[in-house]
Amino acid sequence: MSHAFLEVSGLSKVYATKEGNDFTVYDNVNFTLDKGEFVCIIGHSGCGKSTILNTLAGLDDPSAGAVIMNNKEVKGPSLERGVVFQNYSLLPWLSTLSNVEFGVKARWKSWSKSKVREHSTRFLNMVGLEHALNRKPSELSGGMRQRVSIARAFATQPELLLLDEPFGALDALTRGVIQEELVKIWSETHQTVFMITHDVDEAILLSDRIFLMSNGPNAAIAESVKVDLPRPRQRNTIFQQPGYYPLRNYLVNFLVNRSGEKPDTTSGKPKEVNPLADLDLSGAPAEGAAADHTPQHPRAVNQ
Amino acid sequence: MMQSMPFRAALLSIVMAVLLFGIWEAAVVTPEKSTEMTEYEMLMGGAEQEARVPPPSDVLKHAWDELSNPFYDKGPNDKGIGIQLAYSLYRVLTGYILAALIAIPIGFVVGMSPLMYNALNPFIQVLRPISPLAWMPLALFIIQDSETSAIFVIFICSIWPMLINTAFGVANVRGDWINVARTHELSPLRTAFQVILPAAAPTILTGMRISIGIAWLVIVAAEMLVGGTGIGYYVWNEWNNLDLNSVIFSILMIGCVGMLLDLALSSAQRLVEYNE
Hints:
The complex is a heterodimer of chains A (303) and B (276). With 303 residues, chain A is an alpha/beta fold. In chain A, 29% of the residues lie in helices and 21% in strands. Chain A is built from seven helices and eleven strands. Chain A has helices spanning 49-57, 96-107, 113-126, 142-155, 172-189, 200-206, 244-258; strands spanning 6-16, 22-33, 38-42, 64-69, 72-73, 81-84, 160-164, 192-196, 209-213, 221-226, 271-273. In chain A, the strands form two sheets. A seven-stranded mixed beta sheet of chain A has the order 6-7-8-3-9-10-11, with helices on both faces. A four-stranded antiparallel beta sheet of chain A has the order 2-1-4-5, with helices on one face. The termini of chain A are far apart. In chain A, 42% of the residues are buried. Residues 283-295 and 298-303 of chain A have low confidence and may be disordered. With 276 residues, chain B is mainly α. The interface between A and B is medium-sized, with 24 and 18 residues.
């Protein structure tokens, strides 16, 4: 039997409350990731997205279920799984360059000093920070700090990159710029990425697939939505692609109207959906789809 | 014209010092000899008439004399101020460094392990409030050496702030940074030295700074007890000599050296400080 690059099966997380009751955040979460895939996960607060990500990272133990990567069960953190945390998690006593070198040195212990430096500088150049190598994180803006964090994660070249809502704390303009940098760096390295986001547009821009999570407690991944839009995608033109709004409306509709429904997880994998499969995207929008072109607003859910 | 803040502050300090010394100088004028001295007073050499707090001009003149030859040694009862301070500094630094060598590693372990923290906490809580001088009789009996006993007293008083601050600093290292170490598969030793130590260093240095301050306070009292040498002995000896000039001068020197010790630690603290 062939296995996917990453397999998550029957994952659940139960916390004991003070009253002695069990509180199940999510239950029976199943999904697979293929190598080189970019997958975003969207869901309302409290559905356990971050816990799932931490479990993939090996920082958190599941109450039940298992994560299998490359046919090996994930037990504890590893350099094969890089994490970008929402709050950047840079070491504030180290300069920008030293923060990236910290990761590179941990990854390749035998590398010479100059090789570590050269490699780290290359990744900092990719995120446009070549002018800030010697600055401390406290002297950087939030956007620049997150770039350092992304550079550190990509520089260690893990097999799986886990991004925990990396742009959540950034303003919209900065976010847009870094999203493009993320697209750029990802298209150069083609790492497998699993990312949490609250931003539907961000998810469409970046992902191959989008996981939609139902609300907690007892949350689960309800659907796996294929993003059937051609790459390379650009932030300023992706809106003009014919499939964009139908897809966006589908996602927003789920989050606003359907995320409260209990998904059927008995099949052991999320329902595969491709909202664009029935649309004729070659030319003019298909009949009936025209009405879908009016965008719905909540741009970002979970405000 | 507006001058800079430090300049104005310095100016104000000088004005205050002049005022203070002026009032002091005026307040301690030699009492007029009102009557003929009695035979007893003559026998005493008029000592009582002279017994007064010396004015600052005398103290400064005396300070100048002492500081221009700080390292003379004319026997056990008459050594230069530099020698006395050197003895005190030697005791303080020996006891302090020994305390740091023990307190910081133990504090590290205590901070890392909630079990150790809870197990050691009662001991720390009972031992910490004991005045270091209370250990002196026991130390003298066990160690049988006054010199080493003084060092032991410094050791025991400087160990607690360093131990407690190190444990606190280590225990409160942000979980995110520990996670960074974990996701980079750092060994426990590397995590300790590359993440926890730099993260806790400002708190550890704060403990070290508190300790050196306390050690310097305690050495004066300890040396008054053990005698022989040191700045504390010097103060007490000059009191016995009724040389108030020297007493006031040595009080000022204690203050100056204490300030220098604190300055040294605070600049070390600046080296390890970071902004989040």
